[in-house]
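Hey all, quick one. A colleague (J.T.) asked me to put the adenosine-5'-diphosphate job into the tracker so the inputs and the structure tokens live in one place instead of scattered across chat threads. No bug as far as I know, just bookkeeping. Sequence used:
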Amino acid sequence: MGRYRTLDDVEVSGQRVLVRADLNVPISAGSVDDDFRIRASLPTISRLREAGATVVVCSHLGRPQDREPEFRMNPVADRLAQIGGFPVRKLDGVVGDEVDAAVAAAGPGDVLLLENTRFEPGEKKNDAALAEGLASLADLFVLDAFGSAHRAHASTVGVDDYLPSVAGPLLVAEVEALGTLLTDPPHPFTVVLGGAKVSDKLGVITSLLPKVDMMLIGGGMCFTLLAAEGYEIGSSLVEEDRIDEVRDVLASQWGDRIRLPDDIVVADRFAADAQSEVVDRNAIPDDRLGLDIGPKTAGVFAAAIRGSGSVFWNGPMGVFEWERFRSGTEIVARALTDHPGFTVVGGGDSVAALRMLGLEGAVSHLSTGGGAGLEMLEGKALPGLVALERWSEGT
Ligand code: ADP
Ligand code: MG
């Protein structure tokens, strides 16, 4: 991990501080569905506020094409104020005269939230004028958005060119937890992967395999691996164009560390109320699709997790959104959360599954970053962190 300065290295009292948080939360009908990322960012904002900084917070939200109203940050501001117990002044711009005036009028302890950074076309292009405009709002930049640290955007890396920049406490916690898995995981180190697509996770599979003791694979992605091993997978999810690549991974010197399901819960269609049954992986009927790992597999995976020194889990074992196909994910989640060792869970849907089961408090680290976490575990440098390192000279 590179070196970067943190909030412990700077004085923030009386300073204007721009915080790039990751407040990218699911919103429906104008209210926040899941406030996990807001809660995770709150300690950083509170700490700055209580230390006497003027806190200017920004984040992107979703994937707006233009400035569609449903991507405005207002519901986020409301929820932040509600759980934080302090007023949050929501601004209607990201940069510009009105924003300048509002920030100039604010004082120590005030919290302002800028509009969705992606409302500015310069955000994703890492446009210098936008970065400079954001930087002009503050005396110090705090990058706390781990979930966006793998993107070189104006509000994640651009601002660093114009302002002294430090890593926020949430970013530090994320990087330390994943860094432990990369450099010094207590063994046996087990990785549990699931979720929809193997193509999202092939990079992390190949880079982690040499480091792990075991890799347990379920979810939709396991069918591409089973197909590569020659099993008939019926009409289960498969990425045909990845089969050769997957076959190479399985045949590599580390391939025998991968454990695939022995039994599968299959359904007659992709629906919550589909007819379901458990079958052996040798016996998946042509007209059925696999929507969960079977009970035998769930037991094997749970036992492997219980016997591990550290575990990283990303991706549900089945279509956990539907009760009938939730049991594999639930059994794995319970094994993980009973576990006294070092456990890290990443990925939006995996974290959502844990929260749905009420188990989110029982892991060592719940990561707010899906893609960023996977990129870091692949050993890739995160642009956000690289940008911060320039400010670490002399510390
Ligand atoms: P995460 O967000 O934790 O990284 P992914 O986004 O990769 O996870 O995958 C989550 C999605 O995968 C869930 O919506 C889940 O319904 C789906 N999924 C899991 N197993 C299957 C399966 N067997 N067939 C189809 N979809 C699946
Ligand atoms: Mg997901």
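Adding what we noticed when we looked at it: The pocket of magnesium ion (ligand 2) is lined by residues 347-349 (CB under 6 Å). The CA atoms of residues 194 and 315 lie 4 Å apart.
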